[in-house]
Design goal:
This protein starts with a helix and ends in a 5-residue tail after the last strand. It has two domains: 34-128, Beta Complex (Ferric Hydroxamate Uptake Protein, Chain A, domain 1); 157-302, Chitobiase, domain 2 (2-Layer Sandwich). It contains seven helices and 18 strands. By secondary structure, the chain is of the alpha+beta class. A hairpin with a 4-residue loop joins strand 1 (34-40) and strand 2 (45-52). It has helices at 2-20, 61-68, 166-177, 198-201, 214-217, 271-279, 283-286; strands at 34-40, 45-52, 71-74, 79-83, 86-87, 89-91, 94-102, 105-106, 121-128, 157-161, 191-197, 221-224, 231-235, 241-244, 250-255, 263-268, 291-295, 298-302. Helices cover 20% and strands 31% of the residues. Strands 1, 2, 6, 7, 8 and 9 form a six-stranded mixed β-sheet that branches. Strands 10-11-16-15-17-18 form a six-stranded mixed β-sheet. It has a three-stranded antiparallel β-sheet with strand order 3-4-5, covered by helices on one side.
Length: 307
């Protein structure tokens, strides 16, 4: 009896020590809702869309995916090879793999190392990455990261108007409807939303990344020409011209320069185009899109895909 009691006491002390050290013998406390979104072909083909209310503090982005989809991994379980039977590899001489974003920002760490804190919008997408191995930011998780931040903290959001006319007021209205507060001045670590014609925005260092192509900006679009002859060109997954839009087309895109917070671009060739882009700041238009071109009632998810 005495020996059994001593063993039980020792075991209890060990359990208490492990708990105090944070070793996580159990699932841990719930952290709140997490959205899991799985798509293919730059968001065009939905695979899994779930609101997970049972995520807990011991979960990672990988564990959440494993619990809601049939997956295989490689490199010791740190890299997703397939989801629901769709595998990374070569197709027609081009490279395809699974990539994931958290709150619209490409994750800097692997899914097995990304601990959940609650409130995340996790988007996995299977895409051709031959032309752009890195897409630093996307608009398809809107209103994230403008609301809720990214990287474990909330970032201030600033709206910078560069000759956009009434489009600035339209953008403010759209952001207000989504509960996105705007900061004044230029606070450190702010996510910037640039609103204005491309001829004005192109002078900004972050916006200028578009001229270098998707490999640098992650945006499958570019502006070409000068003055009134400037046109927005939609690129395909190979970064080749696929469609030339009319002069009054707007563009909503996001990019990131180095490790700075994302910069959102609400732009176009003309003031009309800028207004079209500002009016597109809504979840129904932007959902699961890397970037969006808006021309009247027609929206085109970028890169341009096959009809």
């Amino acid at each position: 009896m005495i020996r059994r009691r001593g063993t039980a006491v020792a075991a209890a002390l060990l359990l208490a020590a492990l708990a105090a050290a944070g070793c996580g013998l159990g699932p841990g406390d719930e952290v709140g809702d997490v959205t899991l979104d799985v798509t293919r072909e730059f968001g065009r083909v939905p695979v899994v869309q779930e609101l997970i209310s049972s995520a807990n503090e011991s979960d990672t982005a990988m564990r959440l995916l494993e619990s809601n989809a049939d997956i295989t991994t490689r490199y010791g379980g740190g890299f997703v090879q397939s989801i629901d039977g769709v595998e990374g590899g070569q197709r027609g001489g081009r490279a395809y793999d699974w990539f994931f974003f958290v709150n619209g920002v490409e994750s800097p760490v692997g899914a097995a190392e990304f601990d959940l804190e609650g409130g995340e919008e996790i988007w996995w997408d299977y895409r051709d990455w031959t032309a752009a191995s890195r897409v630093p930011a996307v608009v398809g998780s809107f209103p994230a990261p403008l609301r809720g931040g990214y990287g474990g903290r909330v970032h201030p959001v600033v709206l910078e108007c560069e000759g956009g006319g009434k489009a600035c007021a339209e953008a403010r209205r759209a952001l207000r409807l989504e509960g996105i507060p705007l900061a004044s001045g230029s606070p450190q670590g702010a996510i910037r939303i640039l609103v204005g014609p491309w001829q004005r925005l192109r002078l900004d260092p972050a916006a200028a990344l578009l001229a270098a192509g998707p490999a640098e900006s992650g945006v499958y679009a570019r502006f070409e020409g000068s003055g009134a002859a400037t046109r927005l060109h939609g690129l395909d997954a190979a970064a080749a011209d696929a469609h030339t839009f009319g002069p009054d087309t707007g563009l909503v895109a996001a990019t990131r320069r180095y490790e700075a917070p994302p910069t959102w671009l609400v732009t176009g060739v003309t003031v009309v185009g800028v207004h079209e882009a500002a009016a597109a700041l809504s979840t129904p238009v932007l959902h699961d899109s890397y970037a969006v071109a808006v021309e009247g009632v027609r929206t085109t998810s970028l890169p341009v895909g096959e009809d």
